[in-house]
Amino acid sequence: xxxxxxxxxxxxxxxxxxxxxxxxxxxxxxxxxxxxxxxxxxxxxxxxxxxxxxxxxxxxxxxxxxxxxxxxxxxxxxxxxxxxxxxxxxxxxxxxxxxxxxxxxxxxxxxxxxxxxxxxxxxxxxxxxxxxxxxxxxxxxxxxxxxxxxxxxxxxxxxxxxxxxxxxxxxxxxxxxxxxxxxxxxxxxxxxxxxxxxxxxxxxxxxxxxxxxxxxxxxxxxxxxxxxxxxxxxxxxxxxxxxxxxxxxxxxxxxxxxxxxxxxxxxxxxxxxxxxxxxxxxxxxxxxxxxxxxxxxxxxxxxxxxxxxxxxxxxxxxxxxxxxxxxxxxxxxxxxxxxxxxxxxxxxxxxxxxxxxxxxxxxxxxxxxxxxxxxxxxxxxxxxxxxxxxxxxxxxxxxxxxxxxxxxxxxxxxxxxxxxxxxxxxxxxxxxxxxxxxxxxxxxxxxxxxxxxxxxxxxxxxxxxxxxxxxxxxxxxxxxxxxxxxxxxxxxxxxxxxxxxxxxxxxxxxxxxxxxxxxxxxxxxxxxxxxxxxxxxxxxxxxxxxxxxxxxxxxxxxxxxxxxxxxxxxxxxxxxxxxxxxxxxxxxxxxxxxxxxxxxxxxxxxxxxxxxxxxxxxxxxxxxxxxxxxxxxxxxxxxxxxxxxxxxxxxxxxxxxxxxxxxxxxxxxxxxxx
Length: 674
What we know:
The protein is about 30% helix and about 25% strand. By secondary structure, the protein is an alpha+beta fold.
């Protein structure tokens, strides 16, 4: 198979054949598509693995390059200041080896699980130079492997040593997709370059650059898109945004947004496994995050319940959808009954051997809601899932708090804890206590503020020591102007409000968490509109554009946090939907203002973020944020329906008395005027 492959691509490389060599020389260059002055990174028809311009020993997917096989002293890896594409400044990889005859050198890196099913092939630039004029007696091999462990290995030596070259000696390798038939191009995993001596020791220099997949159109997105049920037809939906703004009644306005938001969960599922993908990005370049998490799954299940309650789908359709996904979940690897934090949505492969406590908590919350929403259809399976996941696994009895998670690779728990009540993790504590996995006193060992003696926190808390249910509690608080509040870690509104999707804090804790959530919302509005002069509010973790790529950033009001996230002017719509629970009138006004000022709306509803300092919208949908938005609207329009399901269950009932047992600010209600 390999011989046929080499004949096809390299023109009988290494075999005497003048006609084949001429055919190779006349083959069009893959890199001729690169516009002068551009890099592969900005051209959609390329998905580069590495151009070595960052010089950080990581490829462009974030995976390290590692040396295997060779002993120290027999090789040197460095970056030269020359780039294989002459019009572009940058670097290339240079490997020098002095290998004994019985040793090889391998330079290896990973892709995660990379879908390149839409690519035409794989290309790179190379140059081989022997030492001191001696002939090159070894082999340079390229290997690609997939998630199943299958691999293809190609001898690059003939082309990189003597193939057609440019005026600087750089040669081009182009490997056609159709010839690497043993690989599953939907799930490529690793890349290897290996130098092997021949009959004796090998001393040589090998240079490699511009390693890339290539194809037509947006090759990365095209490879991923065919895995989904559906995808938006365009970036903006101006007519839809205009229609929403013309609807002055609040409930129909929110209902129509919910209908669009639900379209994400109708379409952003893997065709085969029915798992929700993490995100889809519709701007240039488009992208699909073909992995999922327990929280993404939780949001999908809660979205199905919400869609049924809002009348978008029937009960039969909701159950059918949920069962299709549950069928897949029963095949997925777990740890002690808990799901890992990242799975590839196609192969179901665990892509990181880590179990997150808070993500596991949200999936347990969804199990509780599902067994109340569809008891006959799903009750027994939900019972089993809940019984198999014991949150005491994450409990640290020495301090009464939950560890962040378990790292299976290290064989140990994360060294830190969820130590603050005003974060999204309190829903995990709540469900763990309700399941009777965790002792009730755990609730009181989670800090309202850190102890006043911890001088690293953003302000010295005021307050008093109390005893509640026999447990000592420092009933501390921070202040923003005249407003009293208990802080979150980063000061994002998300941390305060996400638990309100299922917990009746406004209703059952009017002088505790319910009050605190309202104060946090008021402070966020005051900070953004009055102090910073932003036209809209809602600072919370969100996805933002970063050139061709994107990144997830943590943003908030620093004064509301123990440490405090930065404020970069990034506003995210999803947190405004969460604020329907605290200040609904202001939340709806904020959504309308976003629609008026920014091109922030697409076929699946609001995009994930707006930078109000430069007006840039990140046209991306995240499953987590779409789910929170839809569930929040369902609660608002249907009298807290998701909360009702959660508290109707014995898990919610057992723990709910905790909510009314404390007053955060017994001497004064607090609050600020927005």
